[in-house]
Amino acid sequence: xxxxxxxxxxxxxxxxxxxxxxxxxxxxxxxxxxxxxxxxxxxxxxxxxxxxxxxxxxxxxxxxxxxxxxxxxxxxxxxxxxxxxxxxxxxxxxxxxxxxxxxxxxxxxxxxxxxxxxxxxxxxxxxxxxxxxxxxxxxxxxxxxxxxxxxxxxxxxxxxxxxxxxxxxxxxxxxxxxxxxxxxxxxxxxxxxxxxxxxxxxxxxxxxxxxxxxxxxxxxxxxxxxxxxxxxxxxxxxxxxxxxxxxxxxxxxxxxxxxxxxxxxxxxxxxxxxxxxxxxxxxxxxxxxxxxxxxxxxxxxxxxxxxxxxxxxxxxxxxxxxxxxxxxxxxxxxxxxxxxxxxxxxxxxxxxxxxxxxxxxxxxxxxxxxxxxxxxxxxxxxxxxxxxxxxxxxxxxxxxxxxxxxxxxxxxxxxxxxxxxxxxxx
Length: 426
Description:
Blueprint: H1 4-13, H2 22-35, H3 39-54, H4 60-68, H5 77-93, E1 114-117, E2 124-126, E3 140-142, E4 145-146, E5 151-152, H6 157-160, E6 165-168, H7 171-177, E7 186-189, H8 205-215, E8 219-225, H9 231-235, E9 242-247, H10 251-257, E10 258-259, H11 264-276, E11 280-288, H12 294-308, E12 314-321, E13 323-324, H13 326-335, E14 347-348, E15 354-355, H14 358-371, E16 380-383, H15 388-394, H16 402-425
Parallel strand pairs: 1-6, 3-7, 7-8, 8-9, 9-11, 11-12, 12-16
Antiparallel strand pairs: 2-3, 4-6, 5-10, 13-15, 14-15
Helix pairs in contact: 7-8, 12-14, 14-15
């Protein structure tokens, strides 16, 4: 008959135990036989220990003792587990606090290997999160590059690709072969599989995308970025149907969660320089992170944007939230990098993904939308991947379906684009 120690030996390798600090490992292997922990109970404790380490909290053994005491009698197991679970839930659900020492971050970015590959893989498709279960803009995407050099803690790209960053050897040819309906207008993004601008014109990818935009005047081609690598846009003639968009977060989030990206001030300055060249710009507040002082920090960004840009220079502004799939949560724990991004209350969205509760989302979205009040009716505002009731409670309106959303967004944007073309013709 298998002894408890033999069971415990199996538990160790099937949990996050091997990744934990030595003192925490010693503590866990000490209390497990005394409390007669089951595999699920042991795994739960290792997950809590891993989270505390990543969140910059006290070591698990200290935190555990402060909430459960030192008496590890097996008869107290249910009481101990209840206390630990409740304490962990309270910590997880409260607003993050970045006021203490900054979280540790990698000193160097992991660039991996950059390769050019010949592939029959399709580069054009629907946005991977488009769904009738939420109100979506029907964005189309072009995967010009696969993988990202940045290290944002919440990013899903980390689970899609291996260490290689892949450039398509036949990008230009594939773009020329795309069959689009000339009578239809399209919103196509290039920032789903990588950051759109961080690579510049490496391997001619921007040249190929600009040629595609010129050949397809019915396409609004969006370059979404967290970088300030805008040299190409300042030095070249850019088609009127190009929009450069910046994902914005407060400095404390950039510093702690968006590793190796451009600082907020440099992103906004890059957008200003691009707009000065007559190129349309847009802004994405996505994801909006819920933390202590979030309201003041995000509304300060809005104030800066309103001061530095006119409504006529900005096509659209979007709001979105943190959303996780389970493989991403596992990958974050495996990486072991310090982050507070997972310190949040998680509930399932209409797709079964994990995100903030509705009441927190409504508070975040409505706060930022109200802060942009002077641009209402002049700039196109929308939520990304959210259900209809959240639109109504946050923005005060909602589109009847995704096709109507797409139609209204394209009508707004192409009114600006066509006017720009007309003025350039004189």
